[in-house]
Amino acid sequence: xxxxxxxxxxxxxxxxxxxxxxxxxLDIKAGEFVAVVGPSGSGKTTFLNITGLLExxxxxxxxxxxxxxxxxxxxQKSRLRNEQxxxxxxxxxxxxxxxxxxxxxxxxxxxxxxxxxxxNRVVDALTKVGLVNRQAxxxxxxxxxxxxxxxxxxxxxxxxxFLLADEPTGNLDSSMADGIMSLLKDIxxxxxxxxxxxxxxxxxxxxxxxxEIRDGVLTENESINQVVA
Length: 229
Ligand SMILES: Nc1ncnc2c1ncn2[C@@H]1O[C@H](COP(=O)(O)OP(=O)(O)O)[C@@H](O)[C@H]1O
Ligand SMILES: [Mg+2]
Hints:
This protein is of the alpha/beta class.
């Protein structure tokens, strides 16, 4: 589903050159749940943003569902992103002025769905995360765990082929974090691939595979993978 070869990332400013990611190869198959771990500043968000077509890479090749994304225009990338990728962030990124229904519907407005299709998708997605009876509520009326569920519903409503999550449980207490992890596991079991950055090794252990990034060096962590298995 996702094949990266010799991908690397360098940030250049006037005075500094940061090699955020050293060249790496990575294959992710449809249906996999992959956790990404590593210390702060090691390159995890950069890696996730490249994967999600939010940032360009400096070298290498990247195929997403057999499509070479290297030479796509920004417009083509946005479209691919909107249709194939769902994003979940640590800080939820919900729009406070919009109720839950409108928050989940927002990205669907950039697609060619009828109003009826959009409504069906929003209701389905809010049902999956257990919040369909709250659709008229506003984000600030919900707990952190519930807000993250809304963000997950928003990511799911477009039927993406995979979900990218950057520390999705980072702002939650451990019982809410466990709830979000079991929701993500259910979504994965239902067929959506997931790539999740986390600081929490216990949450990472619930994934199928763990990729580790240290100082911009990405490795499949065999020792962690064996411990987990
Ligand atoms: N836009 C940017 N410009 C310059 N350097 C950046 C930028 N974004 C990240 N970096 C640098 O790249 C490295 C990796 O950052 P990041 O991917 O955010 O790490 P992590 O998510 O693991 O904490 C860090 O050294 C960071 O300072
Ligand atoms: Mg980060």
